[in-house]
Amino acid sequence: MESPMTTTRSIIDQLRPIGRPARVLYWGAALWLASAVVHLVALAGDGWSWDGAVSFRKPLTFSLSIGLLLATSGWILDRLPGRPRLSSVLAWTLLVSSTGEVGLITLQAWRGRASHFNTLQAGDAIVFAAMGAFVGVMSLCLVTLLVWSIVRRPSDPLVSLAIIAGMVLVTTGLGIGQWIIELGNDYVASNGVVPETVVSGEAGVAKFPHAIAFHGVQLFIVTALVLRLGNLVEIARRRVMWLVVAGYTGLLVFASAQTIMGQTPLQPGGWTLGLTLSVIAVLVGAAFTVLGLRSRAPEYEETGAPVA
């Protein structure tokens, strides 16, 4: 069995950018992850004021989320068959559009203004409309990335499943985001104020399934990489990979259903069993992945002697 340090180093090496488009997105990711750290400090200085439409929570969470998404998109571009011009166009367009959206969210936070659904004054309404335009361009890039990964799949079946399943969830998250926009706009039209938190029904937190949808792809990619380092046979690796994908997808399905029914994320109800089983499936898949590392046998040369 390799040491945890060696395993970690192997995973980090596989996550490094290769092509120029990926490096562009990694630099953008580094910028927004640094922004997340800055806004964590700002949030602490503001007394950890997490709730509400105006909070440093928003630039913190959006910076972290977009940073992960940019790095993930760059990693995916490195593994799709060579279309250098398309890769460059996607990378730069995704970087500019995502930076525009999160930049405006950050601007509004420092101005002490609500960034989302704030259409009550002309200036704020223009900012919100510009955010929507940036999101539209970014969504087009992400859908293109999904289609490309389906048409020209990566050669490694585990990586292929991780990318396609993850990007399907990301595009689902884009749809959930549109639903959130409609809920928020309806609330403003009915109440004349910006919502503190967008809810569905009585208490369904709409951003709960939205966040789940956007970050399954990172889990899938890391799982695929760790499985490749382990000692499981190929069919076992694929089964574990499918278990993690199915469990996480179930988590999104049941979280969405619970939200639509107006229940809070932790509220016991008809969807609790499905959520619990989905989480268990992901944890079992993670356990098998780690066990594959622990049971890794020494590598042997053709002579049968272990490699030093």
Brief write-up:
By secondary structure, the chain is mostly helical.
Describe this structure in words.
The chain has 308 residues and is mostly helical. It has helices spanning 4-15, 20-45, 57-78, 84-111, 122-151, 157-191, 207-229, 234-260, 272-294, and strands at residues 199-200, 204-205. The chain folds into 2 domains: 13-152, no CATH class; 158-297, Four Helix Bundle (Hemerythrin (Met), subunit A). The longest helix is centred in the middle third of the chain and has 35 residues, at 157-191. The protein is built from 9 helices and 2 strands; from the N terminus they run ααααααββααα. The radius of gyration is 21 Å and the shape is globular. The chain has a two-stranded antiparallel sheet. 73% of the residues lie in helices and 1% in strands.
